[in-house]
Amino acid sequence: MRLSLALLFTTLALPAIAQDAPKLGPNATPITSDTTFLRTNPAPDYWAFSAFVKPQFTASACSIASVTAALNGLNGLPPLAEEQIMSQQSLLALTGNVEWLALSSEDGAGVKFDQLASFTQQALTATGSKKVVDTFHPKDAAGADEMRKLLTENEASADDALLVYFNQGVVTGDWDGPHISLIGAYDAQSDRVLILEVDQDWYIPYWTPASVLLDAMLKPTSADHGPLLGETGGFVYIH
């Protein structure tokens, strides 16, 4: 849900990023620097979903980008040559949800956590899927055990998917704001989570400690983000 540069510079008085600031802070490791888990483990979610993760089509479209990637990954490659792979725009059209379209438009406000869950269920219904949506919306650090339980269950197969709503800057050390992406893997031994980033103008997939991801889900959205003020995150679980 990163704001467009035009809106960023005309409406927000945010501190400038230092010219020598690293692309990723200490809590995020790019996938290109650490491929061991993916080479030595089945990693079913990564192989099912990563090929379908495309850049969000506007600066506010992280929700529809993540949902589209999840549904495409669950459905797999269409079997017939004349069938297109579902795009973010085509999924929005299929749902007929004008509110989701407006929130995902350039300079749109972005979605709240409860809206993400509702819109995801609408997308499943619109595409004829029988899968359902559950949510994990932690209130404090006591949610750590449940978070790791869900990550472990999700890692077992590619028959389900986890969308994560989180404060991106807590993980990347950069932009401070709410964001949505898809979980690509969970390495329980090192307790790290792979984020399949849809914010591809700025990032590629990265690993982050599960504890940091929980902190990112718990951090409330600041007043800089208008109607999203106070929003906290969690998982939207498709199964």
Number of domains: 1
> Would you tell me the overall average pLDDT?
92
Rg, Cα atoms, Å: 17 Å
Helix content: 25-40%
Termini separation comes to 25 Å
Name of the CATH superfamily: Phytochelatin synthase, N-terminal domain
Strand order, largest beta sheet: 1-6-5-4-3-7-2
CATH class wording: Alpha Beta
Major sheet characteristics = 7 strands, antiparallel
Number of helices: 10
CATH architecture: Alpha-Beta Complex
Total strands: 7
Order of helices and strands: HEHHHHHHEHEHEEEHE
The structure class reads alpha+beta
Describe what you observe in this structure.
This protein is α+β, with helices and mostly antiparallel strands. The protein is built from ten helices and seven strands. The radius of gyration is 17 Å and the shape is globular.
What would the keywords be for this entry?
globular; Cathepsin B, Chain A; alpha+beta; seven-stranded antiparallel beta sheet; 239 residues; 36% helix
Task: Give a nutshell description of this structure.
The chain is an alpha+beta fold and 239 residues long. Helix content is 36%, strand content 15%.
Which helices and strands, and how do they pair?
Blueprint: H1 5-11, E1 29-30, H2 36-40, H3 44-49, H4 62-75, H5 88-95, H6 98-104, H7 113-126, E2 133-136, H8 144-155, E3 161-167, H9 168-172, E4 178-187, E5 192-196, E6 206-209, H10 210-218, E7 234-238
Antiparallel strand pairs: 1-6, 2-7, 3-4, 3-7, 4-5, 5-6
